Structure formats: structure tokens, C-alpha cells
Amino acid sequence: AKEYDYLKKVIKKVEVKNSAKEIFDAQFKEYEQLEEVTLPNTITTIGPQAFSKCYNLEAINLPTNITKIEWKTFEECESLKNISIPEEVTTIGNAAFSGCISLQNIH
Question: How far apart are CA 74 and CA 100, in angstroms?
């Protein structure tokens, strides 16, 4: 909803509840100030562009239950330096890490 668009400019940290199962397509897209995301292992799906253009995202844990990183999931996350990809991930979508200019380590 448009009345919540201002949140994209102020939220710095997100901790998703343990009961959540999915991060929707573009759910956190363009959350410009977002620096840290904590996801529970109950998450099984992270939609395309879920964190696209989160320019200040530095830290995110990927749940062990996901098997795919969708297209443009982390597109232009310019501050992301490290990411650990669970062994269960068998597919990484097109441009999933496109524009991640600070990315140094993928585990």
C-alpha cells in the first residue's frame, strides 16, 4: 500500500517471525536503508527480486530449507560483502547477484 512506502526509506533491520514460510516477490525491494535481515529456517521460498535494490544490505542469513535463489533476488545489493548459500540450494536464477559490487565471499 502506498501509505507505507515511507518505510522503504527508514527501516534498517528486519527479523522475520518463525512462523513465516515465504518471502514474497519484491517484498523488500528498494528498502534503501535496510542493513540486516534475519530469516528463520521455516522459510522455504524467497521470491524473485525479494531484496532487489536494498543498497545498504550488509548481512542476511539464508534459511537451510530453501532450494533456489530466484532471479534478481539480491540485484544491486551494493553493500553485501558475504553470503552463505545452503547446501540444499540447487538453482541460482539469472542475475541473482547482479550489481553486488562489494560481494567478496560466497560460502
Answer: 7
Instruction: Report pTM.
Output: 0.93
Residues 38-77: pLDDT tens digits? 999 999 999 999 999 999 999 999 999 999 999 999 999 9
- CA quadruple 7, 12, 18, 24: dihedral positive or negative? positive
Pairing of strands 36-38, 13-15: parallel
3-state helix, strand, coil in the chain (%, to 5): 5, 20, 75
Give the DSSP H or E segment for 83. Answer: strand 82-83
Question: Does residue 100 contact residue 76 with C-beta atoms inside 8 Å?
Answer: yes
